[in-house]
Specification:
single chain; 246 residues; alpha/beta; Spore Coat Polysaccharide Biosynthesis Protein SpsA, Chain A; 9 helices; Glycosyltransferase involved in cell wall bisynthesis; transferase activity; Nucleotide-diphossugar_trans; transferase; Glycosyltransferase_2
Length: 246
């Protein structure tokens, strides 16, 4: 418990056998109560290693649902366990678990209900080896989103986030895509409900074992981001309200 708040770390896993142990070993168990690993039909030893590490809550998909589908299972399990704060941490060791206490404290102390660990604040992305085309796309999409959504985030695309249970109970994340665009949709839903989001600087690492989508899927994701932004804008001006905002 962290100041009487139950904290759950969720690990959306897919073929994470090479990095899971290192990620798990750096989780601060002095404040973390539950670790939940959701395996999206991995073809390696992710489940075997998770059991060996002693991860208590393992959810195994019988087929590959996708990154968004994985997160839905993560959050459903965390809420089932009555967690007060839910932290999504990729088990590919691209993001450091050492920030868990810092981002949790922002929610625990009622400063903000949602926290994003940003790779763009500071020089985390560049120093960590983010491909140049991804960095440029990140900056362009973020600028576009901030204008249409009337926000000031440094990025919308980090996969390292912390949510209060109240926020997840308030939004219909089950209506979101099972693909990578889920990350953007959930932020749009959060803003639509009137919640504010904090950001903290986060170093990142790009290496062979770290998960990353290819150029083709990146382009698809980019167009998906633009669509979500326009849907949010149309909802705000009361022209059209998509089902994810209901």
């Amino acid at each position: 418990m962290f100041k009487n708040h139950k904290i759950a770390v969720v690990l959306p896993a897919y073929n994470a056998s090479k990095t899971l142990k290192q990620t798990y070993s750096e989780i601060p168990f002095s404040i973390v109560d539950e670790v939940i690993l959701v395996d999206d039909f991995s073809q390696d030893d992710t489940i075997k290693i998770a059991k060996k590490l002693g991860i208590k809550h393992i959810v195994q998909h019988q087929n590959n649902l996708g990154y968004g589908g994985n997160q839905k299972s993560c959050y459903n399990k965390a809420l089932e366990l009555k967690a007060d704060i839910i932290i999504m941490l990729h088990p590919d060791y691209q993001y450091t678990p050492k920030l868990i206490e810092s981002i949790s404290s922002i929610i625990v102390n009622d400063v903000y209900p949602v926290v994003i660990a940003s790779r763009i604040l500071g020089k985390g992305a560049i120093k960590g080896g983010m491909p140049v085309y991804k960095y440029i796309a990140n900056r362009f999409l973020t600028m576009f989103q901030n204008v249409l959504m009337n926000q000031k985030l440094s990025e919308y695309h980090s996969g390292y986030r912390a949510y209060s249970a109240k926020v997840l109970h308030s939004i219909n994340y089950e209506e979101n895509s099972n693909d990578f665009i889920f990350d953007n949709q959930i932020l749009a839903q959060i803003f639509a409900k009137g919640f504010e989001i904090a950001e903290v600087t986060c170093p990142t690492k790009y290496f062979e074992e770290a998960s990353s989508i290819n150029l083709k899927r990146s382009i698809k994701y980019g167009f998906g981001v633009l669509k979500v932004s326009f849907l949010y804008f149309f909802m705000q001006i009361k022209l059209y309200k998509h089902s994810i905002f209901k």
